[in-house]
Write a structure and sequence with these properties.
about 425 residues, Rossmann fold, 2 domains, six-stranded parallel beta sheet
């Protein structure tokens, strides 16, 4: 059986070490098992790379890389613009040239190479994964120019994402315009959670199917780790993996840190530690150091394999978001946590999709982020090992296994290919 050729446009891809890479990587990895030959167009990042990720690049693929030459811009950070007229004009010009994000010119300069590859290899399917959303605009032009079938995979909402709502008029107008164009011209739309599916159906009623492809886990990431005997920790270890930053509101660890500090003082706990791994900033480190609790440790960003090992060795795994933006979806992090069979402490409002997922699958317990006393009690309950969790989480998480997820996606791609 001849392999089906697809063009896979994923700006974040191995070896770039970020969360957005992992979903793209797993989809690419498992599509190879379903007779697809992929022409992967991605960026050539030189920072924050993890060469271990390259092991999962499909053998049956050709990878094209183009450098990203545009610097980060404050006008895309979502924070308030300085009030003086000159600053406002500068921000408006930047947003006009670089909307909906700074990758738009990277995409436009790369289009000729993609168009040439599509025509030369007679490719009929283009799969675009984002963020950043400029990738979807590239997919839109490829569809119009090359008459291919277009699949767009959204990790997060587009114009309704909190950071997009905070932007200036130009960027918000650009997001609204291009979201409508891309959604209404796609031949298949895949989204990470049900609330996004309903959002697009209600607002656009697209002609194509909107399919939920949830963030999940890859058992291959854990197979060796789970065979390793777990060492007994000298101190009871709480571990959080992910961003923690005062400058990014939903990742602000203030309540979590203060609750842990008060927990250790209230119960005179001297044999526990709270460990953070992931991206942070100087302001956050100053805040954590100002607490003066010697049992709080910050290790910064870690390669994915090292992060999984640290999670495996911990006694309890922590999830938090403020102001609880993830109550509508199950995150990749939660799936990774669950596979390790450790209690999960979710510090968030006790409602919504994520809360029900943790509760119904007996993965751990939640506390209201803003109720410090409730958070302290949850730390204590976990420390005393009073939490009851399921013994075989894999049996409950079958639909979040990327191997299974991609089998469904592969069937949809084949249907599109043979209908073209």
């Amino acid at each position: 059986m001849s392999k089906i050729k697809i063009l896979n446009l994923a700006i974040y891809y191995a070896p770039y070490n970020c969360v957005a890479t992992f979903r793209n990587q797993k989809i690419s990895k498992y599509l190879e098992e379903h007779s697809f030959f992929q022409y992967i167009f991605t960026s050539d990042f030189r920072d924050d790379i993890n060469l271990e990720l390259c092991k999962e690049i499909p053998n049956d693929s050709i990878v094209f890389r183009k450098k990203v030459r545009f610097p980060k811009m404050k006008s895309f950070s979502g924070f308030n613009v300085k009030p003086n007229l000159l600053s406002r004009m500068k921000y408006m010009i930047k947003d006009l040239i670089f909307s909906p994000d700074i990758f738009i010119w990277w995409i436009l300069f790369y289009l000729p190479k993609m168009i040439k590859t599509i025509k030369k290899e007679n490719i009929k399917i283009v799969l675009v994964s984002g963020h950043p959303v400029s990738a979807f605009i590239g997919g839109y032009f490829l569809k119009k120019i090359c008459k291919v079938k277009l699949i767009i995979d959204l990790h997060d909402p587009w114009k309704s994402l909190d950071v997009c709502k905070k932007q200036g008029f130009i960027r918000r107008a650009s997001d609204a315009f291009w979201e409508k164009k891309c959604i209404n011209n796609a031949d298949l739309i895949t989204v990470a959670h049900e609330s996004m599916r309903l959002e697009f159906l209600n607002e656009y009623n697209p002609k194509s199917e909107v399919l939920v492809i949830p963030n999940g886990f890859d058992y291959d990431d854990f197979s060796d780790i789970l065979k390793t005997p777990k060492e007994q920790n000298q101190k009871f270890t709480f571990l959080y993996a992910g961003n923690y930053s005062l400058g990014i509101y939903e990742y602000n660890p203030t309540n979590l840190v203060m609750a842990y500090d008060l927990f250790t003082k209230k119960y005179n706990i001297i044999d526990s530690v709270l460990t953070f791994i992931g991206t942070t900033d100087d302001e956050t480190m100053k805040f954590i150091n100002s607490i003066g609790n010697s049992s709080i440790f910050c290790y910064g960003q870690q390669p994915k394999n090292e992060a999984l090992k640290l999670q495996y060795q911990a006694d309890v795994l922590i999830h938090f978001h403020y102001p609880n933006v993830n109550k509508i979806r199950v995150t990749l992090k939660i799936c990774e946590y669950a596979i390790l069979g450790k209690p999960i402490l979710s510090f968030k409002v006790k409602e919504g999709t994520l809360y029900e997922f943790i509760k119904n699958n007996q993965l751990g317990e939640s506390a209201d982020s803003y109720n410090i006393d409730e958070c302290i009690d949850l730390f204590y309950k976990a420390y005393k090992r009073y939490l009851t969790i399921c013994e075989k989480p894999l049996e409950r998480l079958d639909e979040y296994n990327y191997k299974n997820i991609c089998t469904l996606l592969a069937k949809k791609i084949m249907d599109l290919h043979y209908s073209s």
